[in-house]
Design goal:
Number of domains: 1
Strand order of the largest sheet: 3-4-5
Shape: globular
Number of strands: 5
Structural class: mainly alpha
Oligomer: single chain
Number of helices: 11
Radius of gyration: 26 Å
Order of helices and strands: HHHHHHEEHHEEHHHE
Helix content: 40-55%
């Protein structure tokens, strides 16, 4: 008479000894870093900036036009990896500042040659920038995202492709370089005599300080904010006037 085997009991014994991994083990094997967060690299944008933007912020749009596939690839990478709640503030700032600047260059390149960004219809209102599963406008990125992040220096970091705008840096913003580059952008802008002048008891300021005054004055006066970055602080009671804004294209001549 043959030996009768209890197969269910044998299976249970073998499984308990590790011959068959549990479902949790399989998840860990298939996903060795379960909580990994995907951050887009800004290296491609940095390579483009280094090639086509000079130290004064002048842009070689014709060069960008010849390299538009790399610019498109970078914008696609951002689109596929939008910020999540797990990102810290500097990571989000880097993402959206770079997105705004790269998308602005893309907008100009798609219409180049052109004399001014203002020659493009609906330049800040058109929803064409892919961001995850939606499309947003340049205005949305600036006003609904960046300005709501509580960092007024973003106004010196984003560039509107015009001579009176803060210059476009030829390096990308990253989470690691955020404080350094925001401070540099602020110092460069307020001390640039083409954009702001201080003469005795008069301050001739960029209209950026008029358009977004509320962003700069939540905790102090406008000149109090500016004096943090000004080489020679202006009198706090100086009379303020605003300069005409030059919207001509910030291209390499």
């Amino acid at each position: 008479m043959g030996l009768s085997l209890n197969w269910p009991l044998i299976f249970l014994l073998v499984w308990s000894l590790g011959a068959y991994p549990s479902s949790d083990s399989k998840v860990k094997q298939d996903n060795p870093i379960v909580h990994q967060i995907d951050y887009p690299s800004h290296q491609a944008w940095g390579d483009l900036l280094k090639k086509y933007v000079d130290g004064d912020g002048n842009v070689d749009y014709l060069g960008f036009k010849g390299d538009v596939s790399q610019l498109d690839s970078y914008l696609l990478e951002l689109s596929l990896n939008p910020p999540t709640t797990q990102w810290d503030n500097n990571q989000k700032l880097a993402f959206y500042i770079n997105l705004y600047n790269a998308a602005t260059v893309k907008l100009i390149v798609d219409h180049y040659p052109i004399g001014s960004i203002r020659d493009i219809p609906s330049r800040w209102k058109k929803k064409w920038i892919a961001l995850g599963d939606r499309r947003v406008s340049l205005g949305y990125v600036e006003h609904q995202i960046l300005r709501k992040m509580g960092e007024p220096r973003i106004h010196f970091a984003i560039n509107c492709a015009s001579h009176s705008c803060p210059k476009l840096l030829n390096v990308p913003f990253t989470a690691q370089s955020m404080e350094r580059l925001l401070s540099k952008s602020a110092v460069d802008f307020v001390n640039d005599k083409k954009r702001n002048r201080f003469e005795g008891n008069r301050a001739y300021l960029s209209k950026i300080f008029r358009w977004f005054k509320g962003d700069f004055t939540e905790d102090e006066s406008l000149l109090g904010f500016i004096n943090q970055y000004l080489d020679n602080p202006a009198p706090i009671n100086a009379q303020i006037e605003f300069l005409d804004y030059d919207w001509s294209l910030n291209e390499v001549k």
